[in-house]
Amino acid sequence: MKKSNALSLFLASVAITSTATVFADEGQWQPHQLPQLKAELKRIGITIPAEKLADLSKHPMSAMVSLGGCSASFVSDSGLVVTNHHCAYGAIQRNSNAEKNYISDGFLAKSMTEELPAGADSRMYITDKVENVTAQVTQGITATMSGKERHALVENKIKSLVAECEQDAAYRCSIPSFHRGLEYYRIRQLMIRDVRLVYAPSDKIGNYGGEVDNFEWPRHTGDFAFLRAYVGKDGRPAAPSPDNMPYKSKDFLVVSAMGLKNGDPILLAGYPGRTSRYKLPEEIRFARDVSYPARIAESQSDLTVIAAATQGNADAEVRYANVVKSINNGLKKTEGLVDGFKHKDIAVIKDEQDAEFRSWFSQNNPDKDFLKELDTVIASDMALTEEEFAWSVATNSELLKSARTLYRLALETTKSDSQRDSGYQQRDVTFISARLARLEQSYLANVDQARYTAALQRYNKLDAKTHPQGLDILLPMPEMVAGLYQQSELGDTAKRLAWLKKDPLAFQQSDDAFIKLAIRLAGIGMSLEERRKEVNGNLERVIPQYMQAVIAWKNSQGKPVYADANSTLRVTFGTVAPYSPRDGISKGPFTTVEGILEKHTGKAPFIAPDNLLTAIKEKRYGVFKDATLGTVPVDFLSSADTTGGNSGSAVLNKHGELVGLNFDSTYESITKDWYFDSAITRAIHVDIRYMLWVMTEVDHADNVLKELSIKYPAK
Question: Which of 251, 284, 494, 620 has its CA 20 to 30 A from that of 155?
């Protein structure tokens, strides 16, 4: 109320700007910020003008693509896109079965007519417009609003601005917040709906080392694959159809086989998912001591159940390959975060920073109660998060999730489109339909039944105080789960999709066991959502003021100011660099194909294809041989600031040419989501020379190679 006005007046008197003073290579920068960093870009050796990098309509930013969870880039004018093998894994898995296993055998379309559909829910997004809409989103907010009222106003403004932006159906628009709600940007993206699999090497290349090597260095993984964007004959995005044509990319990257060396500068552009660099010490301790350990235990248990339920069934193992890979990747990262917190006590570091900030704040700000209010709001967020986790365990069944989604959509459809909750508007129906259809390639009743039975048993062992009020009495007993699957038809794809067109009355009259369970649980789910809206509204009121103060404090110290990652287009930069994970150990920035031979055991996950091993033994390196290394480089390290979502991001040399693909981080770097430590933070990239060598000497992907524009070193 008055105190908020006092805080706002104070902050308005402080210059809040993004500083150009940068330490190390920290920062996931919005493209429009890059002109402020031109001195730093010049210092490390980037020759592309910063103003050009800030322009989404110009090379190289116009070639960048989001896959909705991964990053990619155009590499031809016919819609050819390169990304990571693990980003295309879902498309590979959906087209595979026990007899025709593209996961283990690899896939290469020798012509466009042989390219395979990536999946009904596969999309490519090309960002073409970003505009600051903070004033429009926050207009009308008053100090007397409850958290829920504030959240509703913001959500309605966002939905209205998104609807305005999506008048042209070719585009998908979003309005994410930056600096935890301090700013809002409207982002317009061309949405391509027909995506096809072009080429992916065997997982013996694309996932060499498997989970053993995940987040580890040295790595020897050829984590790359190619997709293609298709559009209607009019050149506009269209539903998948055999009549569609390859998308004529406005721009694409030139591939450089010229190579890099230690110390060379690189740029990296992509769509990083989430970081938490500005969270408070209490939030770090909650993640470290409560949230992450619970998630680790849950993932480990779920994986054990899936393994037991699919063992000895080749078709089941293929169906659940992508599910297992996804859970494993999240598990390894979360385990790394916990280990990283042990290696470096980030909470203590944040304690020191927080104490310094609070001292500065108290000396400069008349509102003495604001920090107490901040702590109270964060405590409520953490408490609700525990209940939401328990809810996720109690509902861990694909059929139950499908039933809940379908019933919720039916309820929302009774409202006008503008009044529906986000995620259930008309614009979302095709995505919901695609997710429900996708189950056909990644669901088996006996496996899902085993997962849900075990999940309910785990839920019953959670601390009772984390159980959402009223939920326990509504849940089935674990021994009753088998009956649910016997009394449900949602496992049938056609019958599952048919529910998309039914009204709430049809649901209420249904005898389907999972539909009935979804209806029974709907009230608890809505209660959690309503409480989340209240908490989020309070966070949206308090956190932006906190972030504005933090930015002012950091500006006063000449420190970098950038928003946490939020799945929007960002640019980071750095150099090819080794690191020392611990005393007495130094790890170089390159690995080579000889390391593949050293690791090869003939047993998973260290099985390399015979033709690859032969090519190495015969030293058929050609133009891809590095003069210094004397062989073909496989992967390399850089100091670039990356996180999940950056998978598949283009790694560019100083001229803006493609020299690698980001795919991982070192194990010691995982805590960079919370704290950037320049001494040990390293991103892992597949060297483009290894990719081209595999395509040339191993898979003979000649048609794809011919489509690329490649700069080769002089012979």
Answer: 284
The answer to whether residue 37 is domain-embedded is: no
Q: What are the φ and ψ backbone dihedral angles of 550, each rounded to 5 degrees?
A: -60, -45
**Whether residues 297 and 345 fall in one domain:** yes
Q: Do 83 and 207 share a domain, yes or no?
A: yes
Nearest C-alpha neighbor of 579 from the set 672, 681, 667: 681
pLDDT value of position 234: 96
Check whether 490 has a pLDDT greater than 80.
Answer: yes
Mean model confidence pLDDT for the chain: 94
State what percent of residues in the chain have pLDDT above 70: 96
What stretch of H or E contains 390? Answer: helix 370-394
Q: What is the mean pLDDT of residues 615-626?
A: 97
Q: How far apart (Å, rounded) are the C-alpha atoms in residues 663 and 224?
A: 9
User: Cα(198)–Cα(707) distance, rounded to whole angstroms?
Assistant: 12
Query: Cα 631 vs. chain centroid, distance in angstroms?
Result: 33
**CA-to-CA distance for 207 and 163, rounded, in angstroms?**
41
Please report which confidence band the pLDDT of residue 9 belongs to, taking 50, 70 and 90 as the band edges. Answer: very low
Check residue 554 and give its pLDDT.
86
Least confident segment among 188-192, 545-549, 564-568, 654-658: 545-549
* Domain assignment present for 492: yes
CB count in 10 Å sphere of residue 294: 18
CB atoms under 10 Å from CB of 25, counted, come to 23
* Same domain membership, residue 257 and residue 394: no
How many Å apart are CA 499 and CA 509, to the nearest integer? 13
The answer to whether residues 516 and 534 belong to one domain is: yes
Residue 263 scores a pLDDT above 60? yes
User: What is the rounded distance in angstroms from the CA atom of residue 246 to the CA atom of residue 237?
Assistant: 10
Residue 363 has pLDDT above 90, yes or no: no
Answer whether 110's CB lies under 8 Å from 702's CB. Answer: no
What is the secondary structure of 490-504 as a DSSP string? TTSHHHHHHGGG--H
Residues 266 and 286 in one domain: no
Q: Position 644: which residue type?
A: G
Kindly state whether residue 514 falls inside one of the protein's structural domains: yes
Give exposure, 195-231, as e/b (b: 16+ Cβ within 10 Å).
bbbbbbbbbbbbbbbbeebbbbbbbbbbbbbbbbbbb
**Which positions are annotated as active-site residues?**
86, 223, 647
User: Tell me, what's the pLDDT at 24?
Assistant: 56
Q: What is the pTM of this model?
A: 0.91
Structural domain contains residue 554:
no
Token duo for residue 270: 């992509």
**How many beta carbons lie within 10 A of that of residue 353, not counting itself?**
16
Let me know whether 216 and 346 are in one domain. no
Residues 6+ apart with CB under 8 A from 250: 62
Instruction: Provide the residue range defining the domain that includes 408.
Output: 281-545
Region 241-270: mean pLDDT is 97
Measure the N-to-C terminal CA separation of the chain; round to a whole number of Å: 72
Counted domains in the chain: 2
Nearest CA-CA partner of 661 in 680, 681, 642? 642
